[in-house]
Amino acid sequence: MNIIKISYEKKENYFPSPIFLKVLMIFFSLLPILVNAQKATAIKLKGKIVDAKSNQPIIGATIAVVSNHLGTYSNENGFFNLNIPSDTSTLVISSIGYKTLTEKLKSNNLSSFTIKLEEDIHELDVVTVVSEKERIARISTDKISTVKMSPKLVAKLPNMGEVDVIRSFQLLPGISATNETSAGLYVRGGTPDQNLILFDGMNIYYVDHFYGFFSAFNASTIDDIELMKGGFPAKYGGRISSIMEIKGNSADMEKMKGTANLSLLSANGAIEVPVIKDKLSFLFAVRRSYTDIIRTGLYNKIFDLYNNSNNNNTPRQTFRGGMGNFNQISTVPSFYFYDLNSKLTYKLNNQHSFSFSLYNGKDNLDNSSSTSLPGFRGPGSINASTSTTSNTMSSKDIASWGNTGLSTRWNADWNSSFNTSLQLSYSDYFSNRDQKNSQSNPNSNSNTNNFSSTQSTLENNNVKDYSIRLRNQWNINQNNIMEFGWEHTLNDITYSLAYNDTSTIVNTKNKGYLSAGYLQDQILLNNKKIQLNAGVRGTYQNLTKKFYFEPRLSLSYEWIKGLKLKTAWGKYYQFCTRIIREDVLQGSKDFWLLSDGTTIPVSSAIHYIAGSSYETGDFLFSIEGYYKELSGLTEYTFRTTNTFRRGPNQTTPAYFFKGTGYAKGLEFMLQKKYGLNTGWIAYTLGEVKNTFPDLNYGKSYYANQDQTHEFKAVYCRKVKNWDFSSTFVYATGKPYTAPENRYQVTLLDGSTYTYWHVSDKNSVRLPDYHKLDLAISYNLAGIVADKTFTLSVFNVYNHENIWYKKYQISDTDITVTDVKYLGFTPNVSLTIKFK
Predict the structure, then answer these.
(1) Whole-angstrom Cα distance, residue 481 to residue 504?
(2) pTM
(3) Cβ distance 266 to 288 under 8 Å?
(4) Average pLDDT of 740-762?
(5) In degrees to the nearest 10, what's the CA dihedral of 267, 429, 148, 340?
(6) Which residues 6+ apart lie within 8 Å of 610 measured at CB?
(7) In whole angstroms, what separates CA 779 from the centre of its chain?
């Protein structure tokens, strides 16, 4: 219950006694009029926006006054503060996923003001219901480069067996949609590690599940999710590309609820329990794939597709050259994952609330294979066609990775103008990989020519994060909102890489902390047509013993009704980096390290963004251009080095290279927001180039994530209880590097290791990428539970898209494998929501 207090101030003036008495009499006679005037012009309304069914707060709901177009947004606790001209004003409240509500205030209902928004699940015969619920994606017209997705509506889109809110963002402009085996977002030429992902305050360092086909977040546990693609304010720091803030669901405090989902690959369930009505609630959700236990039709389909490509569908390719034969094969992995979420929410009173969140998830991947190649030209053979030798190659490749996170949060609304949030969080990310390649070549003609060899790699990476965040918001008046706060993060990161069980190439352990403060002010000018957000962030890192200054500025101007012009500029730093390790034989493998200012520099970026948006009743068109200057980039490669460049205190080998780069592009989006037919088309023109003085002869080259053109189309149609949807993606191919010849390097223990000289870096392109996905859902309402049956078809016309090329060495031969994404893949799922 929110109490709105209206106070009155009376200024006393002292005059000579006769005049004073006359003025005093006039004042008392006019007092009722003055009170009413004060009441009509100085009412500060404080309220809360909640879900009508669950009573959970709604974040980012828009509250506007009809008479003068004044407005505000609900904060992360659902509260809002707004100056209104009178106690009988009319408000319009809207939020993505809910019906737009018009509420007329009455003077007798201001003392308890809670607004409940409902989903729009009804259709009229003639009238088309216009509601926010029909918007899967909402592009912000006020904030630059900001978009929200509705977790409830993403289920309408085609998927690989799991509703995935993170992957749905890949269908927007400026975000790559061609990374099927990575749920991480490549935003405007950036890499996934350059995105700050906060889940209930926990810093999540890796988001892949199930060979990258799913993200690490269960959609049924997500309440609100917002992505800032660039130009983000001083409130956020530590990353140079984008910010994704996710708020987990809190259980209903009035009624027990449950959700269950079953697909051909996995199962998940969630339960909400009101422990103490209106005071304490508990949510628990668990999800697991079961392909390691039960091989369903979908799993067999995936296996058959890979198996067929090994035999008839993809002919073996043989290349003649100075290195011998190239034999092309394919492999199929075995994998499973699980994750669980829990959240305890306690509402002390109308001013104070607490929450405790837990997340744990783990993946296991076995990408091992064994191949026998008859007719191999081994030692002592003269011609491959006449040789009776055979070559057996086996590859062990077992990897596991996962996240564990804990967070607690205290929210305090001190009064109608000031609120505070304090978060404590812990996250732990680990990644382990054990790889071993073995080959043997017995010679039937001579036992003396028999040979075998084994090369192994053992790699481990662990990131621990301990953080505290204090955020304050002060609504000075209806045209000025100030935010300020402080953050402190301690990182403990280890990484080790060893070859052949004895040669330790890298063994690092970094521990350091960041301490940052920020101040930002949002000012509305010219009758709120101009929105200015200026801020500054300062960060101190103990490893470099330096202070980093980050100014930020963004501006939005409503030129004419519906048409807004936007621009932003800002400086950003990143102190924890996922290093790209170039391995042309196995593809690119990455690992996390902490910046120390020497071996691993502090990354930085300057964002320049400009654009505009035009919004009508049913349509939204937006265009944005961006340019990002990048410095402090790090790459790890064996391509040109055969020694260790060490300083007196340096324990890290000289395979780390420093560079700079840039990312630039232009984004277009046309969205049909409302009605029975909704969706959007998006196009991105982009370029990402890096320059490393000690790599590629100092010449600039296209980054691994560079794609020149990318086009996406999303279509949704609702017909009574049926939902139809489709997505189409086309993109030009990504660059890659191919081996040319080899040489050997003597390691510290005297052993030798084979390295390959390769072509100019990323000078070759993969074929263009494209696919079409379809989905159909049937919604059946029930007394006890609502059920949804969904059929999705992934890659409808079975186009073979290549992920990367994998190379295996066999004496004088190289085996080339096209590691492919999935072809035609159907899936069915059933979702039950218990009321």
Answers:
(1) 54
(2) 0.78
(3) yes
(4) 72
(5) 30
(6) 566, 567, 568, 624, 625
(7) 29
